[in-house]
Design brief:
heterodimer; A: mainly beta; seven-stranded mixed β-sheet; four-stranded antiparallel β-sheet; 0% helix; 58% strand; B: mainly beta; five-stranded mixed β-sheet; 9 strands; 46% strand
Chain lengths: 112, 113
């Protein structure tokens, strides 16, 4: 299995609080991605990174920011969590543009 | 980004081949076809990908039509552990693309004893 972990695995928070999710990899892959998964929507891309300090928006980026200060870590921040951000969040990594993306185990976030 | 169309659900008998179809009629010349699956509550798992030629690995075979407008994923001997949602995705080296995957609704495959 690819070395990719997510933390925390579960989190319950209140509306309006900041939340940071961490994705950590030991594969030294260049590309990293954050997706969210909700019933009826499949997986949707939030943000992605194509190198250290190089990030861009995905299809559902509103309300989220990301940072990547080193190759192994990709952080997803909800500045002020809302109930609509209750979801399961998956991180993925890949070595190149083509080929396998490895997915992490997911973080289940509940915003009350 | 090209979109795909998959049947929402399929059944397969254990031990039989499972053939999952996918239509991607708007695929462009440099886009690959990827297949992933997701077993309940786990992260998606890569299965296989291809560009033009048929591909086979230890998990599955991918058959792409000559015009590349459709493909079929074949699980040669389905087991109960293959019950999952299967996603067909197209993506590739198009300008501005950085490998991101666009997931549709997928096909829920139920393997039955």
């Amino acid at each position: 299995d690819a070395g990719i972990t997510q933390s925390p695995r579960h989190k319950v928070t209140e509306t309006g609080t900041p939340v940071t999710l961490r994705c950590h990899q030991t594969e030294n892959h260049r590309y990293m991605y954050w997706y969210r998964q909700d019933p009826g929507h499949g997986l949707r891309l939030i943000h992605y990174s194509y190198g250290v300090k190089d990030t861009d928006k995905g299809e559902v980026s509103d309300g989220y920011s990301v940072s990547r200060s080193k190759t192994e870590d990709f952080l997803l921040t909800l500045e002020s969590a809302t109930s609509s951000q209750t979801s399961v969040y998956f991180c993925a990594i890949s070595a190149g543009l083509v080929g396998e993306q490895f997915f992490g185990p997911g973080t289940r976030l509940t915003v009350l | 980004d090209a979109k795909t169309t998959q049947p929402p659900s399929m059944d397969c008998a254990e031990g039989r081949a499972a053939n999952l179809p996918c239509n991607h009629s708007t695929i462009s010349g440099n886009e690959y076809v990827y297949w992933y699956r997701q077993i309940h509550s786990q992260g998606p798992q890569y299965i296989i990908h291809g560009l033009k030629n048929n591909e086979t690995n230890e998990m599955a075979s991918l058959i792409i039509t000559e015009d590349r407008k459709s493909s079929t994923l074949i699980l040669p001997h389905a087991t109960l552990r293959d019950t999952a949602v299967y996603y067909c995705i197209v993506g590739g080296h198009s300008s501005g693309n950085t490998g991101k995957l666009i997931f549709g609704q997928g096909t829920t495959l139920q393997v039955k004893p």
